[in-house]
Amino acid sequence: MQPVESNPIPYRFYAAAETRAWAAAWAVGLPPGAVVALHGELGAGKTCFVQGMAEGLGIAGPVTSPTFTLLHEYGEPVRLIHMDAYRLSGPEEAEDLGFEEWLERGAILAVEWPERISPLLPSHTLHIYLELGEDVEERVLRITGGAGA
């Protein structure tokens, strides 16, 4: 599991390509079963971050936002489940869709809008906070959690 940061140092990116590259390098160390909660307003770069994760995990092909489908699953060599909880009414709906089974499969799970299902997130969840910066393309990223947080 990636290290816990109790006083996270912000990372700053000035282009989507920088965000993707950083996420790719960071994701290389993610173990099977890792859960990554992506916090941030619309347009903050959550899907961009998952695109980078997929690249770092060796997943080829396009990675798109699951806003309307709720879930995209990518495979080989590592399975990545990309969930968008924005349209869910709450944790119960995620449970009905099979959230517990996704956790049990050992895939890496990336969840956008995790606030909607927060009671279901395991204690080892890594929380990525993406914020809009002062410049149009600037993003500020902080990481907390993990390792039984």
Give your account of this protein's structure:
The chain is built from 4 helices and 7 strands. Helices cover 24% and strands 24% of the residues. Mean pLDDT is 87; it is low at 1-5. A hairpin with a 6-residue loop joins strand 6 (126-132) and strand 7. It is α/β, with parallel strands linked by helices. The protein has helices at 16-27, 46-56, 91-97, 99-104, and strands at residues 11-13, 35-39, 71-74, 80-84, 108-112, 126-132, 139-145. The chain has a 7-stranded mixed β-sheet. It has one domain (11-122, 131-145): P-loop containing nucleotide triphosphate hydrolases (Rossmann fold, 3-Layer(aba) Sandwich). It is globular and about 40 Å long. Helix 1 crosses helix 2.
Q: Could you write a compact summary of the structure shown?
A:
This protein is of the alpha/beta class and 149 residues long. It has 4 helices and 7 strands, in the order βαβαββααβββ. It has helices at 16-27, 46-56, 91-97, 99-104, and strands at residues 11-13, 35-39, 71-74, 80-84, 108-112, 126-132, 139-145.
